[in-house]
Amino acid sequence: MQSSKNSSVPSQMQSRASSWISNASPILATAVIVVVLSPVYSRAASDTTQAMLQELAAEAAEPFSTSAGIATWNRDANGRSCTSCHTNSVHANGRHERTGKIIEPMAPSVNPQRLTSRKKINKWFFRNCKWTFGRECTAQEKGDILLWLSQQ
After folding, report:
1. Would you say residue 4 lies in a domain?
2. CA–CA dist 75, 17 (Å, integer)
């Protein structure tokens, strides 16, 4: 026979959980929602990224590499690099060097909408490579960066 003390444990735990949930801050509640929804966006990012990597591989000189992606991301080109606006951490907000506009984190693990739209990926590679390097990025550079970012 169970003691009454042990039988009340589940109801005490439920009461504590209800209390915690009702007292949770809106920021925490938002974080929980983002974590719960992240796999949906990550799957979309993964599908888009994989398709683009396969297409870029046809034009690339060698297999894509995360270390080459990091090197390209950090490469200085006349005082500019990707980190000039996106910062050294792709998990943090950046700020456009010229306009001051806030740039959401690049890492899909932090910003689940990243790498989900082929159109946006192509648009920003085109603009940012021209601004940073003074030219379009090669298929190799795009693939290396895309591979690295997709794992962040």
Report:
1. no
2. 49
| Residue bearing tokens 């297409």 | 55
Give pLDDT tens digits for 60-116.
Answer: 999 999 999 999 999 999 899 999 999 999 999 999 998 999 999 999 999 999 999
Domain residues for the domain of 96 are 9-150
Structure-token pair, residue 21: 């949930």
Quote the pLDDT of residue 10: 41
Residue written as token pair 């693990």? 109
- Tell me which amino acid residue 43 is: R
Helix axes 118-133, 26-57, angle to 10 degrees: 80
Report if residue 47 sits inside a domain. yes
Extended beta strands in the chain, E state: 94-95, 102-103
**Cα separation of the two ends of the chain:** 53
Tally the domains of the chain.
1
Q: How far is the C-alpha of 31 from the C-alpha of 152, rounded, in Å? A: 18
